[in-house]
Each structure stands twice: as structure tokens, then as C-alpha cells.
Amino acid sequence: MERTQQALTQLNNDNIRSNKQAAMEMTNLLSYGNKTLDDTFMRILQENTKIVEPVPLIIKGSLGSFHYHAAGCRKLTVTGFSFPTLSEEDAEVLRSIHAYTGRDPKNVSRYIDMRSPNISTTLQNLGISSVGIMKKQNPGMPYVRGSCGIGHYSAALEQMVLAEFNNVSRIFPREDCDSIHTRTCQTAVDEYAKTLRQLSAWVLENTATECYLAFEMIQIVSGLSSRLESCTPDLQLPIDKALLSIRDTAKQSLPRLIEDTRVGVRNLVSLPPNGGVSPTIDACLGRLAHLTTFYLAPLLATLESVGESGWRSSHNPASAMSASSGEELLGKYATDMLEALVSTLETRAPIILKNRAIQGILLANTVSTINSSINSSALKDRVPSAELQRLHQWRKKGVAMYIDAWADPARELRDVIHTNRTSQGGSRQSSGSHGPMDSAAYTKGMNSKDKDMTRTNFQKFTIMFDELLAKHKTYSIELDIKPDIALGVEKLIEPLYARYWQRYHDLDKGKGKYIKYDPGEITAAIRRTMQ
Fold first, then answer.
1. Residue 273 and residue 293: Cα distance in Å, rounded?
2. Are 416 and 297 members of one domain?
3. 304-313 burial string, b = 16+ CB within 10 Å, else e?
4. What share of the chain is helix, strand, coil (3-state, %, to 5)?
5. What is the domain extent for residue 58?
6. CB 296 within 8 A of CB 333
7. Residue 432 pLDDT grade (very low, low, confident, very high; cuts 50, 70, 90)
8. Does a structural domain hold residue 338?
9. Cβ neighbours of residue 351 under 8 Å, at least 6 residues apart?
10. Do strands 65-68 and 74-77 pair parallel, antiparallel, or not at all (unpaired)?
């Protein structure tokens, strides 16, 4: 074509009449050649423009890698699969045609018109399925990591964009590559950004179950954006705008998660009658543990952008800024959420459980479970001891509520000492004296009414004591709570019973008719049952 063009130019310059026929034939030949070049350009593009299904390729785990040639052009190197990239031979033909035609803009338009719909069509099912999967999930079920498909969609988009850059850089001049590449991939990237906004809106509508997705998208999309920046910054902009929307959703989810925790506990209609931890409580703790285990980095970044205590405002979380690190804020945020859980449970439990002892066990068990959850998750060493003390208040309160139930039998061991009364020569041991008390001498001076009342007190105490021991065996109590409960009951019962028994045990004469336990047996029964 170039030689023919040169010959035609020479004929025209000679301006000889006998050369007109030859010049006309050469002109027709060049027209035919140009058409052939156009057809060849389109044919090669069509042959290399095929719709592929990216998911099976991605699942193989071969995401490809890129390196630079000495000339500065980026080349795709893949293992196991490749997206539609041009062969070296085809790329060279297209480059030569474009160079021969004087960088004809028509070639650029043809390339974009052919390749852009191909990229969009290749990726469109991933976008549709990413949104469709979310809306088809069972209502109320928490989001399962990776189930949305946005990871596959992002990986496919990244590969297609970078592969297309490989194509463009081998066909068109370097100074034109960025513009052509951006125009070729713009539609696909815009559709991707649209999908991100749709998913972000879905998360905002279903924060309680879908909050994980916002942080998962931050992980995936921010990584994609940073990797595309060095290659194609213009395509990064719409992705960054969509990412900003996702980050806002994540920020708004922080106070909503705390409120959803309150609502979940407030809506409880039943609680385990044995004081065990409710599955709803386990679910709340599991949500926090899952969030900090799998999405720690985006969670910390979101907390830093919100600022200290910013999640406590449902109007504008970003308004409260602070220099606190994400690690420090995570400890405070987690404590606020757990405190909301326990405080709401403390209010809700009396409505469902009428037994105050069981309410106490429930509170203590819940705080114990919280501690276990913290120690087995990424929250370990991130929640300061000062913050944990806020939660331990409920543990102490729960143990105290349970021990209060033992006040009833303890009341039967309180008698009134009439210091001005003497009868029948009986003696009273002074309050300041020490050593074993002489029960026979003490009870000798009691009248019949006082003796009968004391024997009845022993019987009533034994009945209530045995009933409480039997009930205790039916309760579900965490292992780390049991020693505290046993010690509290022992401190309440053992001194009172020991004093009462030493003073009045002679009334039974060792027959066991009124008195079932001696002080040592009381202590042994408490420890045997409760530890």
C-alpha cells in the first residue's frame, strides 16, 4: 500500500497525460486496499471479541499478574486462564493499520464500539447476580461472608480492565492509550459503581443482618481502587465515589448495630428458665465477634473516621472527631454495644422471669459469656480493663441477686437475745466471750414456747435450705460464676448457722428430729452442690 501510494504520487507529480489511466488504476487499487485494511481491522477485532463467563475462571484462583516491558507497556501474564487479549500477531497488525492510516480516529471509534459492549456484557451477569443474591436470601438471616458475589465481580472487572489496557497499549500510541482505555472501559466501570450503590442501599435498609457486607465491600473495593490507580486513574474516580457511599453506610451502621442490639433483646418473648444464656444473646455476641474477626481493618478505619463516641449520635456520626486510634475506639465501641445488651437484658428479664435468683444467674452468665467471647476474638487485648469493669458491675449484681434468695432461710437463724431475762438458773454466754458455747446450759433457761419456736426455726431452715440446693442443681451456671456464688452463699449461711447451732443444738438431743445438719455438714453441702 505504501509503495503503491508512492508510485501514484510520482505519477501525479509527472503530470503526463499517458499516465492518467495508470493513476486511476492505482487510485482504485488504493481504495480497495484501504477497504481491505478496514475490513481486516474489524475482522481481527471481531475474532478477538468474545463473551466469556468469568466465574469459572476466577474460581480456578488464577487472577493473573502484570509486569512492564522495557518500552513501558504493561503486559498481562496469566496462569490457567486469560480474558480476551490480543495475540502478539493480531496486535501488531492492528497497530500497523492504525499507524498507516495516520492514526485515523475512525479506528479508535471502531475499537471502542466493538470492545466496550463486550466488556460490559461479559460482566453484566456478575452485577445482576450480586444484587439478586442479596435480595433472595432468607429474611432475618445474617450475611454470610463472600456470599454476595461482589468479590468475583471485582476480580473480573479488574482483570478485564487490566487486560484491556494491555490490548490498547500495543495498538495505539502511548499518549493516546489512557483516553482510549478509559472510554473503552467506562461503561463497565459505571455499571460496577451502580451495583456498589445498590448494595450499599440494601445494607442501609437491612443493617441488622447485612452490616458485614458494607465492611466486606470496603475491603474489596478499596483494594481494587488502589491497584487501578497506577494504571488508569480516570477509571478509579467512579469507583471511589461509590466507595464513599459504602463508607457512609458503614458509618451509619455503627449506631444502628447498637440500637438493633437493644431492640433484639427488648423483643425477647422468652428466656431459658434455668438462667442459661439466650440464643439471642449468643447471636449478638457472635455478630460482634464476626465483625472484628473478619473485617477488622475496615472496621478500624471506619471508627477512626467517625471519631470517639461519634456512633452514639444517630444524626451525624461523623460530627464527633477525635485523635483516638482505631484500636482505642474499637474497645469503647464494643463496650458500648455490650453494655447496651446487658442493660436492656436487665430491664427485660424481670418481665419474663419472675424468679429473682434466675434473673441474677442470667445476668452473671451473660457477662461471663461476654468475657469468653472477647477473649476468643480479635477484641482480646483491645478492650481496656477500665471498660471491662463497666460490664463486671452486672456480673457482681447478678451474683448478689442470686445470693439474696438465700436470705429467707438465713432469717430463720436470727434470734432475739433477752439480756435482762434469767430463768431457772440458766446462764448466757456474754457476747465478748470466746470458745465453744455450752448449748445445754444455754437452752436450760429457755421456756417451752421459745424452745418450740427454735425447733420450728431449725425445721423451716432445713426445708428451705434443701429446696434451694435442689433448685440450684437445675440452674445452668457458667463455671467461672460457680465459685463466686458458692462463696457468697457460704459467707451468708455458715456463720449464722454455726452460731445458731452452737447455741441451740441441744434441743434436738442429737436425734436429728429437728436438726439435720451440723455446721460442717452445712458447709460441705454448699460446696458440694455449688462448686
1. 32
2. no
3. bbbbbebbee
4. 70, 0, 25
5. 48-250
6. no
7. very low
8. yes
9. none
10. antiparallel
